Task: structure prediction
Amino acid sequence: MATIGNNYDPATTAAGLATNYTSARQSILTAQTKQASSAAAALTSLRSAISGYQSSLLSLTSGKTMLSQAATFSNTAVGSASAGVNATAGSYSFFVERIATANQVSYAGLADSAADGGNLGIEFGGAPGFTVNLATANSDGNATLTPREMAAAINAEPTNNGRVSASIVTVNGVTQLMLTSKTTGAAGNISINTAAVGNAGLKAALSAPPTQVTTGQDALVWLGAQGTGTPIAQASNVFTNVDGVTMTFTKAQAPGDAPVTLTVASDNAGTVAKVQKFVDDYNKLKAVIDAMVAPGDPSKGATPGAFANDGGVRVLQGRMVSMLRGVNGADSLAAYGIVATREGSLSLNATRLTSQLAVSPKGLDTLIGSSVNGSSSGIAGSLDSYLKEWSSSTDGQLKQRLEQNTKLQTSLTKRQDQLDKQYDSAYKRYLTQFTQLQTLQSRMASNTSMFDALFGDKS
Result:
């Protein structure tokens, strides 16, 4: 046993011995805690990746088809169009006689007026809209109501609901109140009811006919030629009369112009983009799983994945690959240019996809299928069904694993608390012992010095 000299610190010595007392158990506990934390992070990441992929599958397959449709006008200056999944291929003629506009009016000759209170009524299409309390419009509380205070009160009125915006425009020193309807169509035409306005001057100024800066009008579009086709009038410039197609008209045609042609047809580029997203989203999820089960390579400094030794996650990895490789025949993934590599990732040959769509356009929908609840089918349905065994919020594997890992982390926290208490106890014990030893050594050294002084050599 080593001899302990006088020159040592009891606290440092006690800390070292207490650390040695608990170091073996602390090393094991630290490793287990780190592993549990890594598992929790990995499980959360896997849950997010699976959930994101399932959402993507649902978005891609929730329509009746993976095939995209395009809608275009022969004259793009007249308007634009887009086709949804329910659009049917076809050709339609339209003549745009007028487009819908929003009403804008201005009231001139306004000046500061006495704050006499009263109410100002705003009407739309001759029908009552909302009322502005002019007494509260006088925001600074003085005796004068300014046009700007009135405009601010119109904009701030809760029952306005954004239907009209008010602003002040000054032209050649003359103040004008500008009111702009937020909706197009004749029903949005603005008028002012001054019957309850208190100030006579303000009432007279607002009762005068306003300047119609822009007249509000409904759009009028003919299905077919102008005058001989079927007229369609509405307040908005957005038309949805053709099933699955949204048309937005932006310019009226001149009398005598030929109708514009709307063509709805297959959009191969849009279909390729959808299939590419199907491929990319699958590869994204697979990459997450592959990284989690990677064995690692010490020679290259690559550490193992969080689930490198987890058979369950490896089964998940294998099942996803087998579901894609198990579809063969004329309408297989490979036939549509979706090829799986040896590792199971997907790649898309757009040329082959387009060629196969020309031969068998409906085969792609049958192959990919749908992940919609109650009507799941095809590859998407199989993938989603299997992934739900992992992602289910009631009995999914991820939920069970996270709960088990949480219990383990709780247990490790308790064990750490116990080990910390054992460390503290050992530290206090060692500190007491070595403090007493140091005190004893100091006394002995003092006695030795005294004896040397009394009985030492006097020569």
